[in-house]
Amino acid sequence: MWKDCVPILQKVCEENTAALLCQDIGYSELILMSAESSTITVRLVRSFEHRNFRPVVYHGVNLDQTVKQFMNFVQKDVPSRTGLPPPFKNYKYDTMKIIHQAHKSKTGELIVSLEDDDKLILKEDSTLKAAGVANETELAFFCEEDYRNYKANPVSAW
């Protein structure tokens, strides 16, 4: 299966363009990205109260795309991931927030920090770079309504 992709990848590399190869059993897609690409970890948050989340790593992410474009890409990619349980695949993710950036301090919160929403929640119309996302940034992807409810009453179920 991957032998067919080698000539395509060689041509892409010759053109000085980075490529993101999303692969799973029965699923492969070549997505062209700009030469300036980054690795981003997206933490899919299913439940704040139960601290239920799964990280998904994306390589070759173009930081010049808008937050909305990246969110749409992740929303389309998540259902095709075989390693994720069905509750994560079918959840209504609608908001991204920066959890951690490389070479900066981490928060003590286990899921996501409840402070600095105005700075850390990504606005859909801005680019990832303008929103403060850089290489090796970790983002939380969650339902805003669930986040607001948890923020109003931050009690863990266990």
Short structural description:
The chain is an alpha+beta fold and 158 residues long.
Question: Can you describe what's shown?
Answer:
- By secondary structure, this protein is α+β, with helices and mostly antiparallel strands.
- It is 23% helix and 29% strand.
- It has helices spanning 6-14, 67-77, 86-89, 117-120, 144-152; strands at residues 19-24, 27-32, 37-47, 52-62, 95-100, 137-142.
- Strand 3 and strand 4 form a beta hairpin.
- The longest helix has 11 residues, at 67-77.
- The radius of gyration is 17 Å and the shape is globular.
Write the layout of secondary structure elements.
Layout (H helix, E strand, L loop, with lengths): L5 H9 L4 E6 L2 E6 L4 E11 L4 E11 L4 H11 L8 H4 L5 E6 L16 H4 L16 E6 L1 H9 L6
Parallel strand pairs: 3-6
Antiparallel strand pairs: 1-2, 3-4, 5-6
